[in-house]
Amino acid sequence: MDINMQNMMDILYGYLPKVVGAILILIFGFWIIGILSKYIRKGIGRSGIDDTLAKFLTSLLTTTMKIMLLLSVASKFGVNTTSFIAILGALTVGIGMALNGSVGHLASGVMLMIFKPFKVGDLVTIGGGNTGTVEEISAFNTSLRTLDNKKIIIANNNVTGNTITNISGQGTVGVELTFGIGYNDSIDKARKIILEVGESCPHILKDPAQGVVVAELADSSVNLATRPFCNSEHYWDVYFFMQEHVKKAFDAQGISIPFPQMDVHQN
Description:
Layout: H1 2-46, H2 51-76, H3 81-98, H4 100-115, E1 123-126, E2 130-137, E3 141-145, E4 151-155, H5 156-160, E5 165-166, E6 172-174, E7 177-181, H6 187-200, E8 212-217, E9 222-226, E10 229-231, H7 235-253
Antiparallel strand pairs: 1-2, 1-5, 2-3, 3-4, 6-10, 7-9, 8-9
């Protein structure tokens, strides 16, 4: 009994310095990692990277440093860290394969945050034809608010895998409009009316100047195209203003707007 007790005491005294050393290393290591994380976060933030991506990268680097610290402490007790790393690597690969879709969305989210094809507040068409104002860009998906106040959540893979049209990304935007008039109506008169309506719109910019051209001689109408420019946030204001007031002005000035008709003949 005394021999066993002596052996236990010898083992305890032998491991006590290692345990104390490991605890001190952990305390000091986590403290250092905490300080480094703050500097890393500030450094990434100053580089202009999106805040969501900056948080993700900081978290990734911090977690990596903590794992390295724990492996270093484990090696003090004779743990075979090589085998542990191999197991951890295999586990990571397995999780990556199981979450293949999610990893793809994450990778796409990182690309969006780095290359910034659009930002929060931009009017865009993304994800195969969804148009709206960007409300949020997260690591896995992008949220849009549509004109009728619906919220659309699009997986980032679908965003980067389709054409991205940033309607408002340049600060100013041209509003594409087409108005059809009858073949018996005056092109010059219709052009003058469209330009006058444009001048009355408070959101249309003077430079570049608005123009009106004959875009097409269609089956039942002469189509006049115009592209007034405005600040990005007033895109829909200009669009609806022009649609309504050009129609009213055409009616008041006797300009017809053709529409499809069907004639039925009875024998």
